[in-house]
Write a structure and sequence with these properties.
The chain is an all-alpha fold. It has one domain. The radius of gyration is 17 Å and the shape is globular. The relative contact order is 0.22.
């Protein structure tokens, strides 16, 4: 039953991440609910869902060539932030992280719920900063570093925050932004996943089962999700995230 639960949760997370984002709001709570230590559940979930980002990035490889100037500039703070967030997670006591979990889930759910509003605002901000100054770029790099810390520490809703950072430097093409977003997510989650694995925080059996299920979910489940529509999927994830966050809050 343990293996079935985590496989189904990861399959759904992979499908949801490929179409709307927010899959962590299903896979992470599933691990917690079946009794996995929340810190190890977060580390294992990061490790398991990381490979799915590569397929998404490959799909936007042509668009990445158009934003080459931003690759190194934003990749470095993403890597540093992801590593910092990972270290912070493993230096947070289980009791403290358990208390934080409901708030992290509810916060990420709220972020997902307001994604459309954020996206509309990004268009206005991007047009206002089509030729960003050096000072403004510095602010964006710092913001990306902070996003990296959050991603390495928890990660749900990270894509929305990365898109916000890209909007701040004047990017408006959503294909280019999505390609760069996936690359930065790989950097943040990748360096955190490597640190978690090296530190012994990953449950390998669960991690591999979830990784395989998430890849299959991203490939097959996205077809079903497309029929349902991006808006429906996002709303469903928001409802599930709220329910899980509230339930975990009272479970404490």
């Amino acid at each position: 039953m343990h293996n079935i639960v985590i496989a189904l949760a990861a399959f759904a997370a992979g499908a949801i991440n490929s179409i709307a984002g927010g899959g962590t709001l299903l896979s992470f709570p599933a691990l917690v609910w079946i009794g996995v230590n929340p810190v190890m559940a977060n580390a294992t979930n990061t490790f398991a869902l990381w490979p799915g980002s590569f397929a998404a990035m490959v799909g936007f490889r042509r668009e990445l060539a158009n934003v080459r100037r931003w690759l190194l500039l934003l990749t470095i703070p993403a890597l540093l932030g992801g590593a910092t967030g990972g270290v912070l997670l493993l230096h947070t006591s289980m009791a403290t992280f358990t208390r934080l979990v409901p708030f992290l889930i509810l916060g990420a759910t709220l972020l997902l719920a307001t994604q459309e509003l954020i996206t509309r605002r990004l268009g206005l901000v991007a047009r206002a900063h089509e030729n960003p100054s050096a000072g403004w770029i510095t602010i964006v790099v710092i913001f990306q570093f902070l996003v990296g810390i959050y991603g390495g520490y928890f990660g749900a809703g990270i894509g929305i925050l990365i898109l916000a950072a890209l909007g701040l430097i004047g990017l408006t093409d959503m294909h280019e932004m999505n390609g760069l977003k996936n690359l930065l997510a790989i950097c943040i989650n990748g360096v955190a996943a490597i640190y978690f694995a090296w530190s012994g925080a990953v449950l390998w059996k669960d991690g591999f089962i979830m990784a395989i299920a998430a890849i299959i979910g991203g490939y097959l489940g996205a077809r079903v999700a497309r029929h349902l529509g991006r808006t429906f999927v996002r709303r469903a994830v928001v409802v599930i995230g709220l329910a899980m966050g509230i339930a975990l809050f009272f479970k404490r």
